[in-house]
Design brief:
Chain lengths: 301, 316
Amino acid sequence: MKSILRLDRRSYKEQKAFMGFFYVLPWLLGFIFFFLIPLLSSLRYSLSSVQANSDGLIVHFSGFQNYVEALTVNTEFNRSLADAMMNMVINVPLIVIFSLFLAVLLNQKFIGRSLARSIFFLPVILASGVILSLESSSLIQAVNDQNAGAGAIQGLGTFELEGLMLDAGLSEWVVNYLTSAVSRIYSIVSQSGVQILIFLAGIQTISPQLYEASKMEGATGYEAFWKITFPMVSPLILVNSIYTIIDSFSNNAMTDLIRETGFTQFNFGLSSAMAWLYFAAVALILAVSSYLISKKVFYYD
Amino acid sequence: MHATRLLSLERWKKWIWSFVRLTLIAGLSFVILYPVLQKISTAFKAKSDLYSPIVVWLPENYTLDNFVKAIGIMDYWQALLNTFTLSALTTILTAISCALAGYGFARLKFKGSQLLFAGVILTILVPPITILIPVYLNLKDFSLMGLIPLLTGGKSLNLLNTYWPFILTSATANSLKAGLYIFIFRQFFRGIPKEVEEAAYIDGAGVGKTFYRIMLPNAIPSIVTVLLFSFVWQWNDSFFTTTYLTSSKVMATQLGSLPYNLAILLEDGANSKADPFYLSMVQDTGILLAILPLIIIYLFVQRYFVESIERTGIVG
């Protein structure tokens, strides 16, 4: 075997390159079979009218007909897409800022820190998939929220807060954004588990000498955050924003609609066209946000 | 005099900050724990307690009836076993294939490996829904580029409702969020000093031996991270599970159909007059049962979980 491959005659570098390909090979096969080919056929379906019968699929090229149908004829598509995009644009900054704040908080020394940490990562384990979708339809939860006062407190809290902030002269738009964040606190907390972990890991790699030196110079904790912590973790803000956007893919009104069109109505063409439009929209958001953030990012090295 | 005043002001600030921090953390912890506590409390309540105005958290009449119902309808033990098998299987395969790919991309550069790594990033960026239909059709008529019909005599295999879709995708590092795991491994292996590896080569170890004797033992934090994430996300996944396994008994499908089955059982038929509150109560118990194993596992590994992720290469 060795002599066939002539491993012994290869240089060290060649050997490594050969082994490298070998190591990546399983992934490459999967990539071709379960990603690249499906991606291309999905593009093809989206440009065709697809009919399934007992012999298999009949695919007729039909140009952009499916795209036109998704955008102009289908009643739900535009609304779902706009909703999904809006949610993303609204939630991502909230989640990123919130998780940075919490990571800073959880990094400080206080009694019960490890307990607090394990509670804050619980959502990584619990919040996903069916559980979340059933949760939102749980009647008991809804009623108890109303009765047990959680709803009342929340409503009251945001109401008071709203008045206070409006009096303070903030614009109505900002106030609405912030108060709606307060009332959606559970969904924000439950979506920021991984992000907190990433920020926490990042904060811990910052050298303590920097803080020491700044303290000597008389910097307050507030200043130390903005001058040291924030710039040092800023690359992770990019990572976390991208992660949060990607994380929202898995289940929303848009994916439900695409699935339903594909698997209940068996309109593969239309469903693929919707999926590609969705992908394009997500790619646009990813591109814009990573461009904006990476302009501000500070790299230490 | 002046100094002591300043000192006390500092101390005051410290105290106030501790208080604010405590309030924030306690409050948010409550927000996170609330739904779980709520479910636990609901699960032990008897039906009569639902309408009793004096019962908020602690039930007046304890009962295990909800558990019995939920376990019966979900076929819980079977579903638990199946879900566990499925998750463990995909987790191990995913960890192996992703570790290999991650190491390959980090240390064993070859022509075009940059381009292939761009492919990994692409798998992270493309929403899974975009390729769902072709993958589904492919698995329904699985022919592996026409190879399988040659062996079986013209018939392709239907892999739906078997574990094969999960085994195949995880063995080839293309399962749920596998791109992320490859990324984690690559970042981690890049962080290990090159000298360690070179020393092993000089001592005569080949690439394979170096990988598995030197690099893997060093990579335990990232291995733990990937194992935990992959297990938990596979356990909770409903996206792929409900697509590939429509009639198998795993947690995701059993939970998904729980409300429906429950309605049939209680008041035969879809237009049932069954009390929606009661349905919701049993459903909540079902959710609790589904996440209970994860919570128990988490109680044991949470310290390791938090620590290991802090030491993985996510940060790069």
